[in-house]
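Researcher: Structure prediction, please.
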Amino acid sequence: MFSLLDHITFANPKAFYLLIIPLLLLFWIAFRYNKQYAEFRMSSLAGFRTGGTYKGAIKTALYLMRILTFCLLIVVMARPESNLKEENITSEGIDLVISLDVSTSMLAEDFEPNRLVAAKELAADFISNRPNDRVGLVVFAGESFTQCPITTDRQIVLGLLKEIKDGQIEDGTAIGMGLATAVSRLKDSEAKSKVVILLTDGVNNTGFVDPMTASEAALAFGVRVYTIGVGTIGKARHPMSPGVPIEVDIDEPLLKEIANMTGGRYFRATNNESLKQIYDEIDTLEKTKIEVSTIQRVSLEFYLILLAAGILLLLEMILRYTLVRSIP
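Model: Predicted structure follows.
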């Protein structure tokens, strides 16, 4: 009931100033009653208890009914109306797969605490900020597999993202297979925008799918690929070679070619902050289309009030000219 009242407005609220009239009538009736009937004090009313008459009570009720009718007519004059708004939201989401390199080199500590953990945490933030998209996960090293099919269930995606770790598959860097698996997840998608974010820190050195073949497949199925090279410039610390920094070797020409062929872009991330900025930029480039159309309905709501006023007036007239007609 209260939610309905929240939508009620009055086109002529100044009419409520007329409520002073029924208030004055109430004072006048009370004043007249006191003047009309004298006060007579007695020690006991036992001898006068004859049960009284219902006509006196009805006559008092007639005055109140007339005043209530007048109040209802004032509300009608204020023209109550309901103002309801309906919003139709049309969301055109994006089908997106994050293909993540989990090879041993991703444990390098040029990111905090290392490349793999930083990539997972920032990917989680990216996914959480895109509630209207379907998201899937692919991991690759020496081979690749689907960690999570594309879904709108954020909790499932984020849970499976957290479970990704190094060493879960054969070591190596099969960029072609990582991309091919991601494209296979999207090839049957009916979304107007299909995107792969491929993140790696190395050079394609294994796998039975050539990266350019996978790129051609992406192009054929209308999949746009954003590639991210992860790693500082030069050398980086690695837990498997303590005290001896490893060379950072990223095949940037290949990653650029993949991105250019499919209509995406190549990015280079050298630390946590730059990787975050890359995800923010991709988020800006791949905006989900949301259309909101508002329908406003205004309807007059005084008909029931007018009906109630008419019924009260009719009842008051019937009682006045029937049951209490003999009352002077």
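Model: The longest helix spans residues 54-77.
Researcher: Thanks, that helps.
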